[in-house]
Amino acid sequence: MALHSSPMLDLAGDGLYGLPTLPLWAEPSRVMWAAWPPGLAQGVGPSDPLLGRKIIRNSKSALRKYRRNSVVQLSRSTIHGMDFRELHVARAMEFTTHEINKRTDLLPGITLGYQIRDPCASIPMAIKLAYQLANGVESVFNHTDSRSKSASAAVPAVIGESGSTPSVSMARLLVSLEFHSMDFRELRIARAMEFTTHEINNRTDLLPGITLGYQIRDSCAAVQMSIKATFQLANGVESVFNDTDSCSKSASAAVPAVIGESGSTPSVSMARLLGLFGIPQVSHYATCTCLSDKLQYPAFFRTIPSDHHQAAALAKLVKHFGWTWIGAVRSDSDYGNYGMASFLKAAQEEGICVEYSESYYRTQPRSKLERVANVIRRSTARVIVAFLAATEMRVLMEELARQPPPHLQWIGSETWITQQDLLKYNMCAGAIGFGIPRSVIPGFREFLLDLSPAQALKSPLLTEFWESSFSCSLKGSSGGARECNGSEDIRALQNPYTDTSQLRITNMVYKATYAIAHAIHGVICNDTQCDKSAKFTPWQILSQLKRVNFTTKNGFQVTFDSNGDPVAIYELINWQVKKDGLIDFVTIGRYDSSKPRGQEFSISNAIIWLGGQTEVPVSVCSESCPPGTRKAVQKGKPVCCYDCIPCAEGEISNKTDSLNCVQCPHDFWPNVQRDSCLPKPVEFLSWDDTLSIILTVFSIAGALISACVAAVFCKHKTSPIVRANNSELSFLLLFSLTLCFLCSLTFIGQPSEWSCMLRHTAFGITFVLCISCVLGKTMVVLMAFRATLPGSDVMKWFGPPQQRLSVLTFTLIQVKKNTCLWPPHKQDEIVKVLRSQEPPGAHWIPYGIHIILSKV
């Protein structure tokens, strides 16, 4: 059996030493068979735990006797009977194999062997048997030596399964596995829990006098197997890999806590079941945002941050570098779908547009993969955010390598941005993304390398690891390769198992194990002593986990928020090309969600972009609109795709990517670029202008003439003609005329605030004074002719007092309106203040007076 995915871990209470296993639990009803490699005999032994086993159902045990018919034996369930039709079909393969072995024209001299396995009409069993066949787990029917030499080899072909649904699951797994050996990286992660447990047991300050035990089970990267193992853990089914009796007394008890699973989708299924039993689950690699929902997953915790934080960090990263036009691709799983949904929401809030968002899963048809690759090749976005699991990323890279697209800037999620085996894809050089912080676990490397052939033989997994790594067969195993001679040096190996340079996810297992140990300590221990006889329930561990707060030996703080999530801390990783041409991980920054808003993200080192560039690549749908233009969104496209429209006449925009243009103030107009407002030039009559000279001559001449007439009137003021003309009004009229002539001089020369107010005020008052005097004299002459009529007393109403009063009244009205402009303020502001305080139409009164008086 090989670990093809992350291990699913559980802690038991009394020092149980277990190893990875796939426990058997199913009802037999159908048969799956496999053609065995040439050179094997057909004999099958008389005993089979798969066909003659305990059926655990409804807390009752039943043991049936089995009919041994020839070499194939099938079990009869306590509920279901044997399917004789399937037995008939199974024996047809046996008959055909015998017939082929007797022929001389087909495989002459070769004996074809076979195995017949029962999937029990169950998808989990079908998946399990597919893994066993792909990795060469020996058939439990084999008790002869004729085919033992190659029993551990993977079969070259599989016949079956009868049902369509199990066949689909088998086909997907067999294609995805491609008959590879175990995942050494996951084996290292599994052994990290073993190492941490031993470290805790050797401590005197944590659980003193208490020995922790554990079981390690393989979920086979399948939801069905995860569910099955979860039921076994919750119901206390003993691990078949337990070779010691130290924990046999409590092996049948349900575990108080579970560590795992690596994948988000299996963790979702496990969390639903474990939540019903109140068994806390601490995952080291399940990052799906959905798992933060305490209503659905009340017993779920994790030591790795939720994708909610990673999505927000990725959106801020994209915004930081000015990328507004990006592509997105994700795994078609809970991890990818929920993670990408969070990222798209955060990206929208940051004003980032997504050209496409594609999904793919490794078991989907190749046509789907090709379509995703073609979308990436045809896109105009130069930046692509990949929320992919490492397996999907590897498959996508292989497809893109067939017809490489233009240089892309890859933004990666934590699952693949620190994956060592992906560094061989040069098209990802310059990639950046957030990874789990790198760590050092003291003593862990020595623990991994402290493995001898004798120790490896105690565990089927370690046996397979040893044989796969050194291409030899250990004593007592059934491999077909050369026998291991003891010269194998595990320290000389270079594979993911021995590589401890990038301990990231491994540290999450380290923290998870310590978190459970601290929770147990809080339940059964006081400060210095533990109660060995104390009984506790998983609910107590669950409650205590919510309150744990400690720092590990390697300096990492462990605590959980109300959602069971830790503080989100990421390292910003850059794939940089070294001098030897190889790509390596370089930490260039950090993201810490516990810091104040706006300070979470920091970059400390230089970034090497795609193609070895140091300048930030550009990825926009439309170039930025310069000042003097505004953005106009293109019809039917995202807001990041727009045209730049010049501002209209009299409007400007003074910043890049302006949405609107603004109107210039009244005394300003736009410059040529229409990015700023310039004061309008002041035009005035200078003293040396021809028109100014003419105006000056006429003004002075008119004033002198008026002054001369006034002097004549003054000299002859006692004469009858002067006295008859109302000398007071005459002198006042001549004075106002003189001032009117002189007022024209104020309109010449550089204007100022005082001159502008003086010219309007003085001219208005003197003009009204002049016209009022003329009106008074005119009315006197008119009334003089009317007064000659007998009995007329009109003249008494137009005597000198009334004339003075009329002149004074009209002049004061004009003075009232003009003196408000006299304070030294800007004229425009004064006008605005006056118009806000006076009734509508009041500013027309002075002009109306001028018009009325002139008409009269």
Structure keywords:
single chain, 856 residues, alpha/beta, eight-stranded mixed beta sheet, 13% strand, elongated
Summarize the helices and strands and which ones pair or pack:
Elements (H helix, E strand, L loop, with lengths): L6 E6 L19 E7 L45 H19 L9 E6 L5 H13 L21 E3 L4 H14 L6 H18 L11 E6 L4 H13 L21 E3 L4 H14 L3 E3 L16 E3 L4 H14 L4 E7 L2 H16 L3 E8 L5 H13 L4 E5 L2 H13 L6 E4 L19 E4 L8 H6 L3 H5 L2 H11 L34 H20 L13 H8 L3 E3 L5 E3 L9 E9 L5 E10 L8 E3 L25 E5 L8 E5 L4 E2 L9 E2 L4 E3 L6 E3 L10 H26 L4 H5 L2 H17 L9 H34 L13 H19 L8 H11 L7 H11 L1
Helix pairs in contact: 2-3, 4-14, 5-6, 7-8, 9-10, 14-15, 16-18, 18-19, 19-20, 19-22
User: Count the helices. How many?
Assistant: 22
Percent of residues in beta strands: 5-15%
Structural class: alpha/beta
Number of strands: 24
Distance between the termini: 119 Å
Strand arrangement within the widest β-sheet reads 10-9-11-12-13-16-17-18
Rounded to the nearest angstrom, the radius of gyration is 48 Å
Shape: elongated
- Spans of at least 5 consecutive residues whose pLDDT stays below 50 are 4-80, 140-152, 176-180, 240-246, 248-252, 824-840
The percent range for helix content is: 25-40%
Tell me the major beta sheet: 8 strands, mixed
Quick check: average pLDDT? 78
Structure description:
With 856 residues, this protein is an alpha/beta fold. 37% of the residues lie in helices and 13% in strands. The protein is built from 22 helices and 24 strands. The strands form seven sheets. Strands 10-9-11-12-13-16-17-18 form an eight-stranded mixed β-sheet, sandwiched between helices. Strands 5-1-6-7-8 form a five-stranded mixed β-sheet, sandwiched between helices. A hairpin with an 8-residue loop joins strand 19 (629-633) and strand 20. The protein is elongated and about 160 Å long. The model is unreliable at 4-80, 140-152, 176-180, 240-246, 248-252 and 824-840 (pLDDT under 50).
